[in-house]
Design goal:
Its main location: membrane. The chain has 357 residues and is an all-alpha fold. The chain contains 14 helices and no strands.
Length: 357
């Protein structure tokens, strides 16, 4: 009878089962790293899709799972809401901010005039002309780095938005397979996955829904205050306050504080004092009250986790890092707690085994 086996079946493999297993894991990690490297400039699209999946999933559950609506129509509706409510306003506000920063950086005479008036009024040398110009240029470059989707090109922005919407579509349409895949392929126990999911939900609630609500209220209050007390371009500075409100501790005082100095430099002392009073008494207290209320209702995240996460996330991921950064810190703390718990259980099992012997 003719031997139908291939020649390779008779060759002995030089690797042990343990070595093959290690090489398989290394190959998977190497390929995953290569794919991440290739998709690095579009990583924000996938991160944003995952975050929005968590944000809109309660709506999805209520409409598809409970009311039995058509899942394709619900998904398309969610994508339309994303474009109309998030993408278009974000693009418009960011473009306004970037254009004005670029204008100030190229023509800093307005700011230099205010600086010189403050110096004349206080007798204190605030900054040299060259330093102010450099600070404006560095600030414009820094913000442009945080908003790469807008700073590079409109085509790049469209590609990232398209990838985000495309990913969201399949996350919702194949929700069951996606969640089962997470449970199947992530190297964690079910208890750990539940903790990680809870941490993700808390971070998204606190740093997306909660922070956006706080930033919106702060922006409106700051813009109205500056408009009432006669500060030029109150609408623009209200938009700036919206972005600054995401920064803990500093936040909107970086907007209404300089606005008060500007009014002092123009000789409008009463208006400047009014801005400071409203800022310290109303805006800051409203900010603190809202953060305390939302911290408990929308996700109990420690302020230090938020602060460290913001610095880490914005530096690596840009504006999407406002959510991803605190999430990374929270995941690190959760995994450290899991590691501590697993070690304690392992030591307890070893102790019981020693007593049994």
């Amino acid at each position: 009878m003719k031997d139908t086996r291939t020649p390779f079946m008779a060759v002995e493999n030089i690797y042990t089962p343990r070595q093959r297993y290690v090489l398989l894991v290394c190959s998977i990690l190497a390929l995953a790293g290569l794919m991440l490297f290739g998709l690095a400039q579009y990583l924000t699209a996938f991160l944003a899709a995952g975050i929005l999946f968590v944000v809109f999933r309660p709506w999805w559950i209520a409409l598809v799972h409970k009311r039995r609506w058509n899942q394709r129509l619900v998904t398309i509706g969610i994508l339309l809401v994303t474009v109309v409510v998030l993408v278009v306003p974000f693009y418009a506000l960011s473009s306004l901010l970037l254009d004005r920063l670029v204008t100030f950086a190229k023509n800093p005479e307005q700011i230099l005039t205010v600086v010189h008036k403050i110096e004349a009024a206080t007798g204190f040398k605030v900054a040299e002309q060259l330093n102010v110009r450099e600070i404006l240029l560095q600030g414009g470059a820094k913000v442009s780095g945080w908003l790469p989707t807008l700073a590079n090109s409109a085509l790049n922005f469209l590609v990232i938005v398209g990838l985000m919407l495309f990913t969201m579509y399949y996350l919702f349409m194949q929700e069951t397979y996606f969640l089962l895949g997470l449970h199947r392929y992530l190297p964690f126990r079910n208890e750990t996955l539940i903790e990680l999911g809870e941490s993700l939900r808390n971070n998204v609630n606190a740093n997306v829904l909660g922070q956006v609500l706080v930033a919106l209220v702060q922006s409106i209050l700051t813009g109205l205050t500056l408009w009432i007390f006669g500060v030029p371009d109150a609408l623009f500075w209200g938009v700036v306050a919206f972005f600054m409100a995401f920064l803990p501790v500093l936040g909107t005082p970086l907007v209404w504080g300089p606005a008060a100095l500007y009014q002092f430099s123009q000789g409008h002392n009463g208006q400047a004092i009014g801005i400071l009073l409203v800022g310290f008494i109303v805006i800051i207290n409203v900010d603190n009250l809202l953060r305390i209320m939302l911290a408990k209702r929308m996700g109990d995240i420690h302020p230090l986790v938020t602060l460290v996460g913001l610095v880490l996330g914005v530096e690596i991921f840009g504006l999407i890092g406002l959510v991803v950064g605190p999430l990374l810190v929270s995941y690190f703390l959760v995994l450290m707690e899991v590691f501590r718990r697993e070690n304690r259980a392992h030591k307890a099992s070893l102790a019981e085994a020693g007593k049994a012997e």
